[in-house]
């Protein structure tokens, strides 16, 4: 398979094992797991790096991987929003999930969150404070887990709101122990969900294969 270089330089994410998965490797050596439902996740490594927020042209798009053995198509965000404290002990990575069997029918179905530093997760609340001081709160639908996974379904109105408002702060709160982490966004990060939303609306899908 062809190689892909992802634009987000981070390795704080922890893999999940709820569904059957296929392991692949990016060009820069990082591991990802491809899930049967069309989503993917990164495999954690010991090395940690700061998130890079380059605002280069063509940075935001929907990547497309096709498994040559099963013909299964996986759609993924070209980059993730990385939020972490200076010590990198707490934080999360946020990205959209997608539905659709073809490039022209893909749509945003929800959000995927990878959390570190808040212990085992259950009923994880995700809160957005927008720059216009409006707020949005959603709760994860997946079961209790100790792998940092929180998945969220989005209604049409929630998707439009996230795709049209710049974000001031994001808070993740563990419903099991009420530990939380709040991150204030700056620069291009404030418009991350807007830019990814626009790429989906424009059907900017690019074939970017992962290697075995």
Features:
212 residues, mainly beta, 4-stranded antiparallel sheet, 2 helices, 14 strands, 36% strand, disordered N terminus
Can you put this structure into words, describing what you see?
The structure is a single chain. The chain is built from two helices and 14 strands. The strands form four sheets. Strands 6-7-8-11 form a four-stranded antiparallel sheet. It has 212 residues and is mainly beta. It has a domain at 64-205. The protein has helices at residues 156-162, 192-201, and strands at 21-25, 31-35, 40-42, 62-66, 73-77, 81-84, 91-99, 107-116, 125-130, 135-139, 149-153, 167-173, 180-184, 205-207. It starts with 20 loop residues before the first strand and ends in a 5-residue tail after the last strand.
Radius of gyration: 16 Å
Q: Termini distance?
A: 7 Å
Total count of strands? 14
**Helix-and-strand structural type:** mainly beta
Number of H/I helices: 2
Stretches where pLDDT is under 50 for at least 5 consecutive residues are 1-19, 45-56
The strand order across the widest sheet is 6-7-8-11
Binned, the helix content reads: under 10%
Rounded mean pLDDT is 83
Instruction: Give the biggest sheet.
Output: 4 strands, antiparallel
Shape: globular
What is the beta-strand fraction?
A: 35-45%
- Report the order of strands and helices: EEEEEEEEEEEHEEHE
């Amino acid at each position: 398979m062809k190689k892909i270089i992802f634009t987000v330089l981070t390795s704080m994410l922890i893999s999940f094992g709820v569904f059957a998965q296929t392991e692949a490797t990016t060009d820069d050596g990082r591991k990802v797991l491809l899930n049967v439902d069309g989503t993917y996740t990164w495999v954690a490594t010991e090395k940690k790096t700061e998130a890079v927020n380059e605002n280069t042209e063509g940075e935001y798009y929907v990547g497309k991987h096709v498994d040559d053995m099963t013909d299964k198509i996986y759609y993924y965000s070209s980059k993730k929003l990385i939020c972490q404290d200076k010590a990198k002990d707490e934080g999360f990575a946020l990205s959209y999930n997608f539905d659709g069997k073809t490039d022209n029918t893909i749509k945003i179905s929800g959000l995927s969150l990878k959390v570190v530093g808040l212990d085992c997760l259950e009923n994880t609340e995700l809160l957005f404070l927008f720059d216009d001081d409006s707020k949005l709160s959603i709760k994860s639908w997946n079961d209790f887990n100790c792998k940092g996974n929180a998945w969220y379904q989005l209604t049409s109105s929630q998707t439009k709101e996230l795709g049209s408002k710049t974000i001031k702060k994001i808070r993740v709160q563990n419903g099991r122990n009420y530990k939380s982490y709040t991150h204030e966004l700056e620069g291009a990060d404030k418009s991350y969900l807007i830019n990814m939303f626009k790429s989906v609306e424009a059907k900017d899908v690019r074939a970017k294969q992962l290697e075995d």
